[in-house]
Write a structure and sequence with these properties.
The protein is mainly β. It has a single domain (24-266), classed as Acetoacetate decarboxylase-like (Beta Barrel), CATH 2.40.400. The protein contains five helices and 16 strands. It has helices spanning 24-29, 56-60, 130-140, 190-195, 232-236; strands spanning 40-45, 47-54, 67-69, 76-90, 102-113, 118-127, 144-154, 157-164, 172-177, 183-184, 199-203, 209-215, 220-223, 248-252, 255-259, 263-266. Strands 1-4-5-6-11-12-15 form a seven-stranded mixed β-barrel. Strand 7 (144-154) and strand 8 (157-164) form a beta hairpin.
Length: 270
Amino acid sequence: MAGRWKPCSTPSAGPALEMKSPTSADRLNARLRPKGFPVMRQRWSGLLFLHWPISPELIQATLPPGLHVDTFNGQAWIGVVPFFMDRVRPSLLPPVPGLSWFRELNVRTYVHDDRGVPGVWFHSLDCDQPLAVEIARRFFHLPYEHAQMNIARSGGQIDYRCERDGIANNPAHFIYETPSSTMEATEGTLEWFLVERYVLFSANGSGNLCEGRVHHHPYRIAPVECPKWSSAPIGWNGLEMPSGPPVSILGAEPVDVEVFPLRTIWKKSG
């Protein structure tokens, strides 16, 4: 879980900055490939993005020092994202059968730091690969949870079920179509705000704020049919579950992803 591990590498303490909101240039700059060598490579497929509006004040209360709610037209958003992790491995090694392919279900919201760098804050990441859970907790300080996943495919339809270990009788169930006639999100739209995210933030056990970056081609997305959806994963994290269906339902084509090392961007004093 986030907040229980030792500090990540390369701390960079400094004077407090006046908070800056992201500009369009900040959002575009986040898409650029970071300098250096990626520590991991992976492929994300079967992506479904479900989003609901949520109170900015509610989200801000869940964030660590140094992070601020990122809003679209004054509204905060929370997302549930089931997908498949494929060919996950360290950059210089081949994928390993039985370890490099697994399923993941994320609950995420949108934030920025004091510099105006936009990114993602994960409330949880449920996963059915125990080793992946422990590695992500240890090295990325992310709130991964062990879960049981059951998947069925029929043509272009995915039936995706997730049950977090320790939470009985409240599984999440999704049935959704894979997208067709996809295109990149248009800059400045809600879709662009929600999916074009290349920075993740996490907090370690010392209270330091860390930043991780990923790089991939921009998502090609399209609205998809989703006859079965669930907001249960939001409730698993102690947040109030939305009362209605998702406002935004998007599918995305697979992307090949480079994952870069985590670094500390704010070090807690004392």
